[in-house]
Batch of 3 targets.
Target 1
Amino acid sequence: MLEDTTRIAAIVPCHNEEITVATVVRDLKAAVPGIIVYVYDNCSSDLTSQRASEAGAIVRKENAPGKGNVVRRAFADIDADIYVMIDGDDTYEAAHLPEMIDTLVSGPYDHVLGVRQDNQESTSYRPGHEMGNMMFNRLTGWLFQSQVTDMLSGYRVFSRRFVKSFPAISKRFEIETELTVHMMSLRLPSTEVPIDFRDRPDGSESKLSTFKDGFRILGLISALVRHERPRLFYGFITTILAALSLLFGLPVVWEFWQTGLVPRFPTAILAAALMGLAFLLASVGLTLDGLRRARRETSRLAYLGLPAVSVPEAGAAELDLPRQTRRQSPAARTSLAS
């Protein structure tokens, strides 16, 4: 059982969700008695704040537009032992929350990802979103040498030390990507739990833009690779520049070997410049990799300075929370980034 003093906080980012936010708040409170629900109204022009307050949530305003800005503000403001992040559009099943919290504590883990299971006759994913999600999962897993099943899921449970060690640089919907890469980079203990996923109710509109937000996510992945894996990023560019240098330069060298003449000076200069730039970028990559290691060690020490989620009776007991029957799925697996 959790101790009576354990603080569980739910963070619900909302922009014009007056139709659904009250249902989300009530479902969270019913699923986990004693949970404190914080609804962050992000520039809404409807009655989102009023509906959330009437349902029993603590309502706060975030005037900088974007889900990433909300998460950064909430992670800084809220003091709790266990954090829940869930969207305010009522597409996630709150009844899975006790299972997710129990999983976090019994691990103990720092991050539990809700993997969406579309069990309806017709898909709940918008056109292109399921394929895009799969592509980003594979790309991120390959780049950061770990595996994730649903990195764009907005339903997650975190430990305090995950939240307080998370830098939160993203502004908009790419925040889920940043959360996933943070877990992979610090090799934090994480696992996945399958959850039900459903359509938005009638009258509720998605704020996601398939292509616009997709390119934002790609841009963030590129920036995070440069930041977290500089040897890979700069090594890739170095290889391309070196290959171009050899492509242009070898014919010039061969001609000089045969005739003793260099008739194509511009080509020779270009080949030499490309090779020099390749060596320069290789040096930059190695230097930044050393700085990255030092920064990661500092981040790891800051992470370890925070207490882990307490494990009741060495993990043998379960949480005293109402929950549905546990489900096991191949998607629910422990992921320790290598």
Target 2
Amino acid sequence: MSVGEGRPNRDHPKVSVKMVTFNHEPFIGQALDGVLMQKVNFPYEIVVGEDCSTDRTRKILLEYQRRHPDKICLLLNEKNMGRRYNARHTLFSCRGDYIAILDGDDYWTDENKLQKQIDFLDNHPDCTICFHNAKKVFENGNKSRIYHKEPFKEILILEDIIEQNIMPSCSMVFRNRIFNAFPKIFDSVPFGDWPMQVLCAEKGNIGYIHEVMGVHRFHSGGVWTAGGVHSSDLIIRQRQWLILFFKALDVYLQHQYHHKIMNQIALNHNVIKSARIGKMKEKLKVVFPSLYRIYRFLKK
């Protein structure tokens, strides 16, 4: 289903940077530059799964690969295979002892990011995964902000990531071969980073570095964020996805955290209910303005 381009012919890499991309023409160069600027004392490779983009993404990747044949391996899908296939195929093509995650529309900002995280994991054999703080940047003009204003503990456990996805995907580095396949129970979930964190945290602790070393971009082409515009439809869709995830998670973890997970499911149902009421109010306001004014009067 895919054709490999230029598998780096060098020593076994200590780190594989796993990058998936589709129609990321405006962003992919910055993503690659953030990796190529890394100052490290170990060999690494960049494994890019390109899912038959309709823009110039593939052309840009081929040019970068031509300039950096010792580092960049391209997995070029012959037809669009979808995000799940592309992500998993790319993940399991990584050869490194560690895998760093970076989507083609995000980027790293610290030239020592990889070295810091690999040093951390080398020095903490009890940890299977580590992450750092990151910045959120919005296409719609909203002010950028960081994920975590207050630091977490340096060492976290599985229970700490059950209720909330606290790891920016661009910050994740974990030990390779912690898991050899994705459980089918997560096939209905339209995102992969949170399940991946759970699979790692089952086998060891989680490390946290309280430094901003990357950027997660919220833009209109994003699967989850749609540019950071919080419409009722987007909120409903996101919360429905989260309910799918929590239901799958509850089964996968054999109901070990059932109470916490059911609380999250109930919370998301309430958010959906509120969003639908808000959507109804907006429709009433536009289609039946007189009725909306009466509704507002009776609410006082």
Target 3
Amino acid sequence: MANIPYYEQKDRENTLHLREMIRELPPYCSDFFRGIEPQTSSRTRIAYAYDMKVFFEFLRKENPVFGSMDIRDITLEQLDQIRAGDLEEYMEYLKYRYDDKNLEVVNKERGIMRKISSLKSFYNYFYRQERLKNNPAALIKLPKLHEKEIIRLDIDEVAALLDTVESGDSLTKKQRDFHEKTQVRDLALMTLLLGTGIRVSECVGLDISDVDFKNSGIRIHRKGGKEVTVYFGDEVEEALLRYLDQRKHMIPSEGHENALFLSLQMKRISVRSVENLVKKYARIVTPLKRITPHKLRSTYGTSLYQETGDIYLVADVLGHTDVNTTKKHYAALDDARRRSARDKVRLREEPSE
């Protein structure tokens, strides 16, 4: 797949993986996935396919009507007999269950909510197509989500993190051996994540040609394939230029010639590798915070909002399709700003001594 852009390559891989997953489901599921394709990404459809398999496995394990059946033989007519009470049992089942390898799987609020949302989409599709007379999923309330604390780096922690990436201090001997080879790349990558707020998938998908130093921007592909330019400052530019000077002397593996960030195997760096890289350095600087690439994104969003106070700008730069998503994440900052106003206006002068 030599000259295929990263996002197209991942979409192809996801599409082929989805086809394999659909083969394990009842035949009518193919209609559902074709129906939702225009509104969903390939990654979302894979998640739906996984969730639907969990639902059909629940029917086989917990409902005697389906106990002796193969999943592929479960019919829409039989699904029409499912009632809201059955789906409430399914929600209970999702909390603790065992997978195909008999390993315990624990779903928390968000995991349960996603699987119920997938099921609602499934039932809604066939109900609108008038292939189901009943829609019990419409009667089920999604579980209440408790807001998670937003973890981000403080300003001094950001500086300490970049200092650690640059110096390699406190790394183990084995880690220092790797650090000598990857220090310039790691610093460019971490500076880019912290200085632009892009997603880790957008970062690993960058090609050399996506970097435009004339306009200080990078071309990325957002979720759904939308192409946008994200702009960077002087610190990011300096780190990228230093890395690209080193990158010129690397010989990439076949098919990875265009990739901006390369692994030690001279292949496009993977999402998992970046996650491990962030974890390695962050654990030294702030061992009590579980820092991931997404937390670096939150850190950037926080800094941008504190500097500008413009929630719409933050939503646009981070690529949130709904500004309410951004507002929800930064509501605590709004509250802090409101609290700071309490001492700004004085109603009476302090009495002079």
